[in-house]
Amino acid sequence: MIRHIATLFLLATIFQSCLSAQPNDMKAYNGDWEATLSAWTFSHQLTFIPEASDQWRVTMGNEAFSHSQLLTSSGEKGQVVLEFSEFMHFVGALSDDEKTLSGFLQTTYTKFRLTLRDDGKGGYAGKWNSFYVPKLQPAKLYLSIENGEGDNYEAYPILPDNRYRGTYADNFQKSADEISFIDRRTGYSFKGFLRGDTILMELHIGGGQVGGMSFIRSTEDWEIGTTTDYSPEEPRHPSPEEDGWLTGPLSAVSNSEASLDRMVDSIEVEALTNVHSVLMAHRGTLVYENYFNGFQPDLPHDQRSAAKSFASAIIGIALEDKVFQDVNDALYDYLPEDYQATKDEQKARITLKHLLTMSSGLDAIDFGIDRVGQATEDNYQMTRDWLETVLTAPMIYEPGEHCNYGSANPFLLGVALDHTLEQPVDDYFHERLFGPLGIENYSIQIDPDGRFYFGGGTYLGPRDMLKFGELYRQGGVWKGEQILSPSWVEQSFTQYGVLENTSEKNGYGYLFWLRSYQVGERTVDAYEARGAGGQYICIIPDLELVIVITSGNYRNGRYWQPEVIIEEYLLPVFGE
Fold first, then answer.
1. Contacts from 200-205 at CB under 8 Å and sequence distance 24+?
2. What confidence score (pLDDT) does residue 229 get?
3. Complete domains list, the chain, with CATH
4. pTM value?
């Protein structure tokens, strides 16, 4: 996924120099700073009130700050398009009954799905949690200021809450005793005032202030760790929510839960590290739900590459809708004309199916080999034109001959869909997939050209992840509605090759991983959406079971830990 966006704790921003040469100017602010702030600083209550045919008064606030601004919609009839600032805008529409206003709040690199409901006062109200941390614990923000080359400086803002999703600050400027920068991930504008032993910082969206903090010199080592913000009282008995899930006791389907006790004990003593959630649905009923380290049901989680399987689903829907004619269609039939010059005889043979099965033959192998290819995710994401970088990469294999995991493959699928659809991909994605599943609280990553990035990075809550798995377990059906065709589900779970750059040489379908697990003396097949750090949606049809695990093992190499949890702790619940 987007490497420089997804870094959980550190954010680099360059201080452009308009600095004087005086020794006590910016150099006096080098070092570590910290601020105490409201626990709800990054959680906002939104109200949109129509005041005229094309004007909306938007109020954004929390327990400490609130501001409103009158915005003019530039959208066509039935569409609401509001520009908060150069770095943030909202695009949405009213429902047919005018009871909800829904759409996407877009920043430079992220689109947040918003659903605002009729508040009974002539407006539409809802919430936006910009960092997906409902209540900061501890309620602090750290700031490190370091001198780079010459008069350039770097700043690293860090939230000590381990659930922090990261930022991407840019456009840093200094004038006299003021500094400013924006966060391209959330659209916040930061404005700081240098006051000797204090830095006063204001947080703005559009023309209004939504937060404030005062930084002082840090006197102790920084601590970044877990929070006690959330602790479920009865994790074995999932609570019914208005999200479409039937819930029931695990005891109704299991004679023994001893292995779950061992799992919880192992998580608490950190033998199983950085586990955030574990959920199980059996025969369409949510029977086990547990959260750890401050994570909770309504907190969207970084899917990383597990979102590639969401991309597979929407491609299947697009084929059903005849947006694409056939899975064996050539990729270049659906690419912008400006990029046709990158096509050669070999690249012309790349099909949609090759991209779905990681077998395009492009020099796009993300890991597992010694050299770095031109179209690896780490490489193309560092360039301005991702598409040109990927398409001009050399071919190292004939399409379809070898399968090697590389995010450039689903990225190209996203570009093809974006170019072919008559509406934005994110709207189509919601209308045809997440909307019918009742999924509203999520965000997607976009590339530098504003396209939905199919390589990963969607944020989605665990219970909604479970819905996606259940959709596939039931052959494309959710709540009696056929969302995916049964044949697409079958094709997605078919092995087309093995991923040669993985240590276990995993079987691979249409952006799904294939694996087998042992349940006593029995072997069962599983089909999995997987993401870095340990994000798994595991579908086991023979057991009528869907499992979701979210984790934070991004740096310790324990990305495989969910497989251990599944085989050693969860499957024993269902006997031999």
1. 201/35, 203/41, 203/65, 205/60, 205/84, 205/85, 205/88
2. 67
3. 1-226 (no CATH), 305-465 (3.40.710.10)
4. 0.93
